[in-house]
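Lab meeting notes turned into a lecture example. A postdoc, R.K., suggested we walk through two folding results consecutively so the class can see how the record format repeats. The first protein's sequence and structure tokens come next.
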Amino acid sequence: MAERFNEVVLPHLGDALALARWLTGNAADAEDVVQDACIKAHTGIAGYAGGNPRAWLLTIVRNTSYTWMSRNRPRGMMAVGDLGDLDEMAAAHGTNVRDEDGPEASLIAKAETAALEKAIAGLPQPFRETLVLRDINGLSYRDISVMLSVPIGTVMSRLARARSLLASELGERHDRP
């Protein structure tokens, strides 16, 4: 059982932590969520029937995040992670997300990142969640469909709507004087 847990869960802990940070809004809470999720994954590893182990673990993390937040946060409080998670995920895969050509480019990139984070935070929860799972975590439409218990068409329409809302919000920001 420990060997299977090591094969299925451990390679995806970084992505699990990144998703938990996006959902909870901070690293300390995300670590608590991932720890709880790992306990659940360890308990349920015998029932893992194969397929995409990353999607299986991220489903557990997602469900654990919402359970944890319902117990530990006031209802009206909403949090989101930050795009720094992209850098960590890219480094883990040996790529570079941002190409910074100097201090000016770095400053512009930070301002654009802050605007994007704010725009993502402003999305309605179903759109934000779908966008993060697809565009940040890179899950397939099918995996997201299973994870969220919605048809693939719903995943696709939520993602299109989320991207459209982001484009509108970010376009409006660039149009402002």
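The second example is placed directly after the first for contrast:
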Amino acid sequence: MTVCIAHDYCTQRGGAERVALTLLEAFDDSVLVTSLHESRRTFAGFGDHPVRTSHLQKYVVLRHDPRRAFPLLAHAWDRMTPPGSSAVICSSSGWAHGLRVPPGVRKLVYCHNPARWLYQAEDYFGDRSRAVAVAARSMSPRLRRWDRDAAESADLYVANSSAVARRIKAVYGIDAVVVNPPSALDPSGPRRPVPGVEPGYLLSVGRARGYKHIDVVAEAVARHGTARLVVVGGYDGVEALRNVTRLQDVSDDELRWLYANATAVVSLSHEDFGLTPVEGFGFGTPAVLLRDGGFLDSMVEGVTGVFAEAPTQEAFLEALERLPGSYDPERTRRHATRWTTAAFQRTVRALLAGDRTQVGAGA
């Protein structure tokens, strides 16, 4: 079976991109179709597979921030086709599921979230200009029709979390199968210390998006006085706060070291699933997480960490005070085995073949 993996755009190193790469590696002779590919800013593993891009690829400014291509992406996906594939898996947050497939080609959509730019626009465009937000609202009616047509063209919809499955039902009326994404960062891999970082910090890993609330976590740590925070990615300016270190362009070897030497992984993000705490669990590291979204699928309260009740400094600091205690690293590591790459790939291959018996089968 020749399988095409379609992903919105491969221009960054995020959880969705890790999933897309894991899907590519699940099938021999798989091909990647994406609107934009920036090899220097995303995972090098994509280069191990044939990559087909849209006509937007020639614009460097779009590869650096695909949100600038917002008015053009629907048209770009309408023009692309899977190259001689017998099946297609769309790794989609609202664009890739629009890939048109020939009759007889099975189309599975692995949905990270229904189009945030349509249904959670303030989150998506929160750090962009007012003009961009106004333009997005003006295009919404047409794009909603396009988006719903794209969703209805799938043979099977798969949600990455229970929260996303509920959103899919509310937006599209589709009952999605829930398959959590894997933790693709192998804890047994090599670790490289990060110069200037001493063990015993809180760790936040995330892109600069308003709904991530990384600035709230950083400001809370600065207020705390003794806690330290390492931010991988995140917002410009947080490094100016007391006891906050910001890192960019972190390798997987360095990321393993950061997870292994953190006191806790922290996030107040409204995540669709949220891979970073699961990655941390693999190193025996607990988490402080917002009681919301995909974190409800992955956290075992009191066993793998604690919840904050709201995305505020006060709620985060209150949760942080409850974190010290008897967290068993080995129990946390065992919990992480629910999200292995092998189990995820096995389930997706079964679903593509029309077999749902592997759903929920675990590691």
